[in-house]
Amino acid sequence: MEQLAYKENEKILFLIVDSTLLGNSFPLKKLLASVNQLPNVILINLRSGLKMDQQGLEFSNVGIASFYFPKNMEHLVENIHDYLEGNRGILGTGLSFYECCLIDFPSFGKECVYSDKILENNLDFSRQIIKGKNNIIKEVLHPGLLGDTNAYHRAPFIFLKLNTESSLDYELVVKVIQTQCMKMGLVIPVRNSYGFRNICIQYIKTVERKPKLVLKIAVGKIKGIKFFAVLDIINKISEYNSFCDLRKLLLYD
Fold it and tell me: How many other CB atoms are there within 10 angstroms of residue 177's CB atom?
């Protein structure tokens, strides 16, 4: 905000934020209070309406764009609206009538109960993972572990960095979590989370000359048996002295 305040006032500035990973839990009012002090800034808040707005049911793939104009730029509202509407028509990106009907329910795009619960569960999960000297887990990454739990230190997932550079070891940990859950009759999806309704895990290998490896856990809104089962398995994994010892767990099973 301080940097924007020193920009030339005669130029229109667009401040674009992507609040997808916080949904309606994003502190928009606080941001607007700051932007309102700047007479030449148009705020655009973009987010996927699939992640936090459809209760994890994924009715329709939809994006939400909200524009906030200062009073002295009200004359631009209609022009920008017409431009966006025309562009949507040219690209064919508008929702069909059927898709509009699917997302026409009271909570869509309006409430933050769903997103707040997801963020709360991930913070709780990250804090219960055993830290300290650990031969398997090198680091637990979640912004809430920085010590401050304000709006900017929340996230709908947790990253685990392991004490290894081997993709096979990451795959091993995923397999152990899956097989141990299966013993309890639980299925843990291994996929990229979209709706964040229930817990799922994902092993990520970046596409680089020197790939980075990370294990992603998206806890989800439902704090049920899967929440506590996966947490317990991860903490038991951390008790092993090596990945070689951990691999024996699968062999014995």
Answer: 20
pTM of the model as a whole: 0.87
Place of tokens 């392991």: 162
Could you read off the pLDDT of 123-162 as tens digits, one per residue?
999 999 988 778 899 999 999 898 766 667 889 999 999 9
Domains (range + CATH), the chain: 2-102 (no CATH), 113-252 (3.90.1150.10)
Half-sphere exposure (Cβ direction) of 45: Cα atoms closer than 13 Å: 19
Q: Under a CB-based contact definition with an 8 Å cutoff, are residues 31 and 57 in contact?
A: no
Amino acid at the residue 19? S
Q: Are 46 and 26 in contact (CB under 8 A)?
A: no
CB 215 within 8 A of CB 162: yes
- Cα distance between residue 26 and residue 119, in whole Å: 11
Which of 233, 11, 250 minimizes the C-alpha distance to 137? 233
Count the neighbouring beta carbons within 10 Å of the beta carbon of residue 8: 7
> Which candidate, 9, 27, 5, places its Cα nearest to that of 17?
27
As a whole number of angstroms, the distance between CA 140 and CA 158 comes to: 7
Long-range contacts of 163-166 (CB under 8 A, 24+ apart): 163/134, 163/135, 163/136, 163/137, 163/138, 164/213, 164/243, 165/213, 166/243
